[in-house]
Amino acid sequence: MDDGTDQSDEPTGGAGAPRGVAGARTQSTGGLLNIGAFARRVGLTPSALRFYDDCGVLRPARVDAVTGYRFYAEDQRERALLVRRLREAGLPLVDTAVVLDGDRESARAVLEDHVERVQGMAAAARAAARDILRDLGSGGGDDDHGGSWARVDGAVLASAVRQTAAACAGPASRADHPELGCVLIELADHEVRLVATDRYQLSLRVLRPTAAEGEPVRILVDADELRALGEWALRREELVLRTDGRTARVTGGGESRDVPVTAGRFPDYRMVLDSLPPTEHRVVVDRAALREAVTRFGECRAVVLRTAEQHIEVSPTGSGAGRVMLRAVCSGGGLLRIAFDPGVLYAALSAGVGPDVLLDVATAVQPVLVRSADQGSFTTLVMPVRADTGTAV
């Protein structure tokens, strides 16, 4: 789960969330285990446990009313282990809930359907994996030039490039605002952050380097240049990214590539993330199924999502014609109706990782947080639109 980097006992989750206070890392309280200790006990990450709490799959035994820290009981271990096994099998959360809490016949039917889907994808997956293994290189080392630097895994950097570059603006918007056609790369706080936005969506991926030194620095890199770098990085086991803010170079596998740096002023993404209102509605749904539903309506102006009784209805511009009903885990107050530009929502879903997608919605007119359990370091914000016109709200 995640990318193996979340070792904290209990940050509360979300961008810019505060970290633990003194005493928060106590291994147990009144016979209960804190989130870090329980995570180690059952082989999950704290971010995965927070996600399963959000989705109602694995609630903590107690949540501290003051700090918000989660505590788990020993008798929850068996359920947590089953969740882990189901997730290792790639089962979506909506199906996981059936296996955990449904009757035996329903659980068997869900698992048999999943096995058929997996078998159908296996041949293509094996072929793709063999191609990648043939192309993988090795090596890497530090560059001797000045500036700040960070050492990262090549495949992880390639994944981050793919996810964030998808949020960059198209050629029409770049003419007036060229920075929207770039990805912001930040080296700071022992992290490498990649950020992109076209004003309708914003994507942020945080990487934890194995080593890093230097002062905080940020650069803008054209999305097309960065995609080419990502393809090159995929074949290197380890890379060193070094920059002084004016120039940049990536070294790995005994080779180096200069990275062209673009001048410009990138939007203040931190202000956007910090100003997000509290979540009022939370929806967990099969990511591939929602993405397929979004593409079924052709060139519609907007795609509308409605929640109803642990289902989500997907329809074009609010019309019931051709609507698609998907099973979902829905929580929050009342029913939700929200519209998106289908192209923008499709891109956000495609950039995600894992079988599930979680939508955190405050209101139908404010940015929606899109995230997954399988990669807590990747965040996407998507702006809703008006259902009748497809224009920004």
Automatic annotation (TrEMBL):
This is MerR family transcriptional regulator. CDD domains: beta_clamp (cd00140). The keyword Nucleotidyltransferase applies. SMART domains: HTH_MERR. Keywords: Cytoplasm, DNA replication, DNA-binding, DNA-directed DNA polymerase, Nucleotidyltransferase, Transferase. Its main location: cytoplasm. It comes from the Bacteria. The lineage of its organism: Bacteria, Bacillati, Actinomycetota, Actinomycetes, Kitasatosporales. Belongs to the beta sliding clamp family. It is found in: Cytoplasm. Residues 32-102 form the HTH merR-type domain. Residues 1-23 are annotated as: Disordered. Coiled coil: none annotated.
